[in-house]
Amino acid sequence: xxxxxxxxxxxxxxxxxxxxxxxxxxxxxxxxxxxxxxxxxxxxxxxxxxxxxxxxxxxxxxxxxxxxxxxxxxxxxxxxxxxxxxxxxxxxxxxxxxxxxxxxxxxxxxxxxxxxxxxxxxxxxxxxxxxxxxxxxxxxxxxxxxxxxxxxxxxxxxxxxxxxxxxxxxxxxxxxxxxxxxxxxxxxxxxxxxxxxxxxxxxxxxxxxxxxxxxxxxxxxxxxxxxxxxxxxxxxxxxxxxxxxxxxxxxxxxxxxxxxxxxxxxxxxxxxxxxxxxxxxxxxxxxxxxxxxxxxxxxxxxxxxxxxxxxxxxxxxxxxxxxxxxxxxxxxxxxxxxxxxxxxxxxxxxxxxxxxxxxxxxxxxxxxxxxxxxxxxxxxxxxxxxxxxxxx
Length: 392
Prior knowledge:
The protein contains ten helices and nine strands. The chain is mainly alpha-helical. Helix 2 (about 15-30) runs antiparallel to helix 9 and helix 2 crosses helix 10 (about 265-360). It is elongated.
């Protein structure tokens, strides 16, 4: 958004800013979030909790949260204090580990009677429902995270992993299940009934009766009955609640504490949406420019790579052409040498034939002539005297 357009936007929304300021001041004074006598709640009795983490598993299933790194049956995670996260709307922590019996406490959004998150949210992304739950509308959220600062229980968390569409996450008191007449998932999953669901006024009476009947088991204090104007989640503990990590708070709600300040400067409060909208537009413009610069850089890198590849291909083809020409020249030279050798051999053969033709021929013998007979050997005459003839 250009500066001129932004200033024009501020001018056109001046009237809307005044109306918005009135709405913020009204929210800060507690209007629209007054406690409902029929509101529901949950009583958590930490003397019964065994730290099994089944409530965590049920919460993850109901809210479609991813499985944690450590499985839910791994109780070693209880040795380290944890807080709610984007993926864990509720956590169980272990306290007093050195005692004979450690104490476990479940933490989640307490769904205040006069929620600080709703009073701090100028776009009304948080609202207090008639049933006592505090709901969150992600379509209205602008990511200012004022709710995280305002919450005295340090519950809302921010999804920093999603840069383009980050959201705030917290327990919803299983509002969709409540609309169907069901109990919250964590209450149904508890195997020892350390979580009791019902009308808040009835739960307060049950908690008081337990304290009265078991004075040595519980401290005489129901946490959430009056802290910050009261909460829909109530707690019983065998030790002072601050030993279980609960913040020490007064009875005055956050909207009541901030009503005077916000009401005295309505225009400042009303201009926050305008200023944040301008900041959001400028941020978006920066993101767009950054994306364009990144795209141009990628295109330039691709073009440079393609040019280098084309040059390398051309060089390779030229080298291949030179190698081919050299090979052809070598073959031609060898062929010429072979032809010359052949011609020399033929010339030499012709010379030999010519030389042979010049030499005189030897006389030939007569065809009928006989060779003279070889002299016969004389037969030797025997010198033996002849035998005498006998007389007849």
